[in-house]
Structures are given as structure tokens and as C-alpha cells.
Design goal:
single chain, mainly alpha
């Protein structure tokens, strides 16, 4: 093999190593940005404004549990900020901006319970408006959380009513 051939092979190997390094750096940057986004989303979810929205939903749902007639449109209107927040998280997850495992660890307990509390109301509003796209990213997020959960538990099913009541009471806390 002559010197020219060795130099050409070395150049190709060098380019391949550089490409792999750039790809690795891109993956690391993607993970870092996803973690930063989750941190920012968590701060937003835990903000006083969002906590007040969550308290309002809990109060409304507890009234309904005690027999008050509250129509689905009112529930969804009052819960819109929280549901829209979860829509944003779902959209980021769907577009692979967020990692499923990190998202599950941070938000699954809220996503799962809120969806199960509000699911009937969402379906009713979809039916009334003839628009199945209402809060579809929230539903997507819920399904991804449940799918991820099934990897570790045998058929977790719906959240038991007593746990939902504990959740709602916890949401009332300042």
C-alpha cells in the first residue's frame, strides 16, 4: 500500500470519528435541553398560579363527588389551564423533545389522576363541540404514562377511588 492510500484511509477514518463525535454531542445536547425543559415545566406546574388552578379543580371535583350537579363544560373550562399544561407536555413528548422516563418520573402521578378525574368531561365536551382534538395531547400523555407503567407493573388499571380522594385533598393544601 502506498502513502497516498494510507493518507486517504486515515482521512476517511478521521471524518467518521468527527461525525460520530458530532452525533454524540448532539444527543447529549438534546438530553440536556430536555432535562432543562422538564425543570422549567416543573417550576411552572408548581407555581402559585398553577397550584391555585389545581385547588379550584379539586374543590369542584369534591363538590361533584358530594352530589353537586356540575356540567362537563364548566369542569373543563375551570380545568383548562391544567389540561392545556398537560397538552404542552404531551406535545413535547410526542415530538421527542422530552424523554418518556424523565417525564414519567416527574408528572405521571398528576397526569394519570387528572386524566381519570376529567376523562368523562373531556369526552362530553368533545361530543358537544364535535371536536375530538380537544385536549388530545393530554390524552396522548396519559396513554404514554400508562403504557410506560405497564412495563413495570401488571395491568395497573384505573386509580382506586380512595386514592383519588386523597389526591384531591392533597391538591387543596397550600
Amino acid at each position: 500500500m502506498d502513502f497516498g492510500m494510507i493518507a486517504a484511509i486515515s482521512a476517511v477514518i478521521g471524518v467518521l470519528i468527527a461525525i460520530l463525535a458530532v452525533m454524540r454531542q448532539s444527543q447529549d445536547t438534546h438530553v440536556t435541553l430536555g432535562v432543562q425543559l422538564l425543570h422549567d415545566l416543573n417550576k411552572q406546574f408548581d407555581s402559585e398560579r398553577m397550584r391555585q388552578y389545581r385547588r379550584d379543580i379539586a374543590k369542584l371535583c369534591m363538590k361533584r363527588e358530594k352530589g353537586a350537579e356540575i356540567v362537563s363544560t364548566e369542569i373543563c373550562t375551570r380545568a383548562a389551564d391544567v389540561m392545556n399544561f398537560f397538552c404542552s407536555v404531551g406535545m413535547f413528548l410526542k415530538r421527542k423533545i422530552l424523554d418518556l422516563e424523565f417525564t414519567y418520573a416527574l408528572f405521571s402521578s398528576f397526569v394519570i389522576v387528572y386524566w381519570e378525574i376529567l376523562e368523562k368531561d373531556v369526552y362530553e365536551v368533545r361530543k358537544l363541540t364535535n371536536d375530538d382534538s380537544n385536549w388530545e395531547e393530554f390524552e396522548y400523555l396519559y396513554k404514554q404514562m400508562k403504557k410506560y407503567e405497564r412495563r413495570f407493573k401488571k395491568s395497573p388499571g384505573k386509580v382506586p377511588e380512595d386514592l383519588i380522594q386523597l389526591f384531591l385533598k392533597a391538591e387543596l393544601l397550600p
